[in-house]
Structures are given as structure tokens and as C-alpha cells.
Amino acid sequence: MLRAQFTSDGQIVAAGADQTSLTASGLSVQRHGQRLVAVGRDRTVKIWQRQVNGLFAARPNRVLTGHRAKVTSVAISPDGALIATGSADKTISLWRNYQWVATLTGHHAEIKTLTFSPDGRWLASGSADNTITLWQSDGTRVNTLTSHSAAITSLAFSPDSQLLASASVDSTVKIWQPDHPNPLLRTLTGHQ
């Protein structure tokens, strides 16, 4: 099992794996648990809507396609209007109302992680090319953050959207200020 996530109310847990027998490699649950999105090796984005009884159906309500390689990561905007999906094809797709709206390019390797800021202003993408790219939620590239020496594996914004933390295979966590001219605030070490 590679990933697990609870809804904000703690009622629903979703889990995903990336093994030969299982195809889900990324998942995201909408803030209030009304929608679950899973992505995987089969290059699809599967979406489940929460039913009246509070459960998710066994089969997805929607299946989105468009990536040319396995889909590796997914994030839902705080307002639920956008879904961002990252792929081994080095692209990020933005989806609105279950329709593709944009392809974001700029990374030179697989997209490993995606996250929206809590205020909905930013989308951050982390890649196996050792970089983080900050995008406006409309897909406009704002900045590329470089300081890691290996793939980015995880990203998280602070609740006020002022700080971004990145974790990497290089065994560091870096704290960034996305709006600052010198965005790297601190490097945390200690993991092996």
C-alpha cells in the first residue's frame, strides 16, 4: 500500500497501491468526501461520487482518459472545481466538470506528486526531474523551484497557503515561500 487518505470528516478512507496486480497509483478525496479520484497504470482517471447512503459505488461514475503513459498523481482543488492529474508522460492535465481543459508542460521527467494550496491559488507539481513547479490554478506557470538533488516525492502547503514543504529522495525536506523572490526558506535534514 503506497497511499491512504481520509476525508476531512474522518468518515471515509481510501487507499491505493502500485503493484502488478493493482493499478491505482494515486488518489485524492474531495475535502468534504463527496468525490474520490483514483489514477493508475492504465492511463485513466476514475471518479466515484458519494451516494446518498454515504458510501461509494463499487464502480466509478466517470472514467477520464487522455494521458499517454501511466497516471501517477492526482489532486482536487479546494472548491472541488478542478482535478489535476500528473503522468509518467511528463504532463499535468487539468479537468473541469469531467472535461479536459489544459495540459501543463515543463517538467522533464515523470510527475510524482501534485497538491493545490488551501486557498486555491496555487497548484504545485513535483517531478522525478528534481524540480517543483508552481502554477496558478488556471495553469499559468509561475516559478520552478530547484534545490533538491533527487526526485520530489511529496508536497504539502501550510493551512494559510504561505509555505510549501517538499520531500525528496535526497533525504531532505525543504520549506519554500512561493511568493518570495528567494523562495527557499529552509532545508531540513535527518532522514537516511
What does this structure look like?
A hairpin with a 6-residue loop joins strand 15 (152-157) and strand 16. Helix content is 0%, strand content 51%. It has strands at residues 3-6, 13-16, 24-29, 35-40, 44-49, 62-65, 71-76, 82-87, 92-96, 99-104, 111-116, 122-127, 131-136, 141-146, 152-157, 164-168, 173-176, 184-188. The model is unreliable at 1-22 (pLDDT under 50). The protein is globular and about 45 Å long. Strands 3-4-5-6 form a four-stranded antiparallel beta sheet, with no helix packed on it. Strands 7-8-9-10 form a four-stranded antiparallel beta sheet, with no helix packed on it. Strands 11-12-13-14 form a four-stranded antiparallel beta sheet, with no helix packed on it. It is mainly beta and 192 residues long.
Give me some keywords for this one.
globular; single chain; mainly beta; four-stranded antiparallel β-sheet; 18 strands; 192 residues; disordered N terminus
Summarize the structure.
This protein is mostly beta strands and 192 residues long. The protein has strands at 3-6, 13-16, 24-29, 35-40, 44-49, 62-65, 71-76, 82-87, 92-96, 99-104, 111-116, 122-127, 131-136, 141-146, 152-157, 164-168, 173-176, 184-188.
